[in-house]
Amino acid sequence: MAAPRASLHLVAAIWNGSTRSIHGLGGAVAPEGNQKKKTLLQFLAGYFYDVEYLREYLLQNQMLLLHKKNRSLAHISENYGPYITGAFFILHLGGAVRFQNKEWIRLNKRGQFPLEFLKFQKVPIEAVDASGCDINYEGLDNLLPLKELQSLSLQRCPYVDDWCLNRLYPLANSLQELSLAGCPRISERGLASLHHLQNLRRLDISDLPAVSNPGLTQILVEEMLPNCKVVGADWAQDLKLEPEDQPQDRANPVPT
Amino acid sequence: MFRRMLRLGWGRGQDLSVRRLSIRKRGSTLDWNGRVSEFKKKIRSILPGEDRNPLYDTSHLPPERCDVVIVGGGVLGLSVAYWLKKLEKRQGAIRVLVVERDHTYSQASTGLSVGGIRQQFSLPENIQLSLFSASFLRNINEHLAVVDDPPLDLKFNPLGYLLLASEKGAATMENNVKVQRQEGAKVCLMSPEQLRNKFPWINTEGVALASYGMENEGWFDPWCLLQGLRRKVQSMGVFFCQGEVTRFISSSSSMKNTSGEEVNLKRIYEVHVKMDHSLEYQPVECALVINAAGAWSGQIAELAGIGKGPLGTLQGTKLPVEPRKRYVYLWHCPQGPGLEAPLVSDSSGAYFRREGLGNNYIGGRSPTEEEEPDPKNLEVDHGFFQDKVWPPLAQRVPAFETLKVRSAWAGYYDYNTFDQNGVVGPHPLVMNMYFATGFSGHGLQQAPGVGRAVAEMVLEGHFQTIDLSSFFFSRFYLGEKIQEHIII
Questions:
Q1: Of all helices (H) and strands (E), which one includes residue A28?
Q2: pLDDT by residue (tens digit) across A203-234?
Q3: Residue A26 pLDDT > 50
Q4: Residue B65 forms beta bridges with which residues?
Q5: What is the ipTM of this complex?
Q6: Once rounded to an integer, what is the mean pLDDT over residues A94-112?
Q7: What residues does B322 pair with on adjacent strands?
Q8: Contact, B127 vs B181, CB < 8 A?
Q9: Among A143, A160, A225, A245, which has the minimal tally of Cβ within 10 Å of its Cβ?
Q10: pLDDT at A141
């Protein structure tokens, strides 16, 4: 016999596919007053146990699908080698791959990709564009054997977080360009673990909602990676947040 | 004759009425309470259902019977509760009660912890526990997901631990790293020159070898983990009670062992939980008791009668877990190590890590046996920083010669004086008390793994995933130490 279940908070669900930032959610504090938009299932779950279980089941299902997409493709890797495996994995998730001296291979409008890359067993992959793909920590298993990878783009990936960045160090010898713009789960702590990537020449850290102090983080990352051009947050960005000073300055410039 | 009969009848009637009158007049407490409890039992037998006392409010009291009582609501106790509910065969099969003395967790080791997680241990079981805990923390929003609640942000810094060894310890460090790599931890060894290239702010004088954890190591916010576990465990239907365990009532039976000696086996069947600031207590009938009381586990074990016997026998072996006070200092150093600084642990035992983005650092040092502070309270000794912590740190990181201490706090280690490793599993004589304590400073990082191991022990009878049979209580009696060498 269980204790009566704790009452559900009627908060707009973060799990309903929309990616929200985890900014400012240290601890388990439920944000108040976000009760305007509730889906029908959410509303009913407050009244019926069956709907509550259904929502939990749907949540579990969503996580299972993500795991299935990111499973390790060891069987392909045995037969075709690491480059084909990586290419297949990325194309399967909806990204694009570029082999050395070849063109970009992407999905066409119907969501199919050409299988010509199956001939390129020995050709290393130079660039991977995984923008917007559902890649996560386990999926990176398939990307890490790509020892000649020079450019990696993880823009707007909803499941790439600090743990994933911690895993990128095997690519340190070849990686020159990395883009993390718009990833909702990356914070300054994950950026700190990029110090292994000493060959990096261009790093894009713009529009990271979970980074608490973008200007200061930019300065610290620039100090950490001296040979790299860090693009993204402007160090003067936080200084512009003074609405009282600015209009005055423009209207009445103080004569010195 | 009639009159005689009448008198007799009257007499008897009178006697009865006199007796009835006297009963009503006496109204002695003994009789009344006995009657009330009989009345309650009758009502309960007619109306089965939730514990509810119709006469007065008992919402602050724990339920009257529970299957498992977990003494201690810190991260280890909550982890055991979580895994018990997760691994039970049928939903709602097990009734779990968590008894925590202080709901503000003001002295609990969990909240005061520095929050590090590392795989750099010398014992394979410790490495496996840490690896599992790292994967638990990585997927924490799948494990501890509660529908409609915001996801947990553990604030994990994946920066790794950097352990420095002098000439003396270099060989042991190499052996340890070999064991760690075998178990699957990603650790790399660095020479002093590589160390200087990577971290130019380190003074490598006296350092022969360094081991650096590349993945799954770092530090996180333990309070967030605690709250997340609490929230999830409450949603799974675990009872919470704020109270103190004051007594165990046990029944004992004596049996003869193979060599013909008489052994007294005890079973705890009732736990008395006393409420705060009152004499009110609730006897909770239970099947199992799990001792996860951290620094106070020794006291709880004594209540159960563990250690009451002649020295050198199994009855006389106490639980060697006692509270040890450790200081943590927070300082500001404007020219200190940058964003990439790992948690550096010097060969002298002093350690530090970065805290936040504002050039603040947290650190401390474990005192030697002679310098152990008195664990009676949590007062901080600032002289300890000046004399014992600052000199080795300033020698290792020259930038720390100019620093300013901002604040400090103290917390307890549930220190296992025998071999500084945890105690897990049932007691050989008190058959239904299970231990999950004694982790001497690395309890937080092993809590998910230990919780699962204890839940497996309770539900299946043996360990299924990680084999912690070397952590049993019996090693204290048999004298088999499983020493953990890398203690920070």
A1: none
A2: 999 889 888 888 888 989 998 999 999 988 76
A3: no
A4: B285
A5: 0.78
A6: 86
A7: B415
A8: no
A9: A245
A10: 87
Helices (H) and strands (E) counted in chain A, each on its own, are: 8, 7
Q: Which residues pair with B325 in a beta bridge?
A: B412
Residues in chain B where the model's pLDDT stays below 70: 1-30, 44-54
CA B326 vs CA B112, B164, B306: distances in Å: 10, 21, 27
Q: Which residues of A touch B140 (CB under 8 A)?
A: none
Q: Residue B128: count other Cβ atoms within 10 Å of its Cβ.
A: 21
Say whether pLDDT at A237 is over 80. Answer: no
User: Which residue in A30, A190, A223 is closest to B149 by CB distance?
Assistant: A30
Q: Is A160 helix (H, G, I), strand (E, B) or coil?
A: coil
Q: Which residues between 156 and 175 in chain A have a beta carbon less than 8 angstroms from any beta carbon of chain B?
A: 162-163, 165-167, 169
Q: Quick one: pLDDT at residue B120?
A: 94
Q: pLDDT tens across A242-254, in order?
A: 555 444 444 444 4
- Cβ-proximal residues to A36 (8 Å cutoff; 6+ apart), any chain: A12
- Residue of chain B nearest A221, judged by CA positions: B339
* B443-460 helix and B124-138 helix, angle to the nearest 10 degrees: 100
- CA dihedral (A216, A220, A226, A229) positive or negative: negative
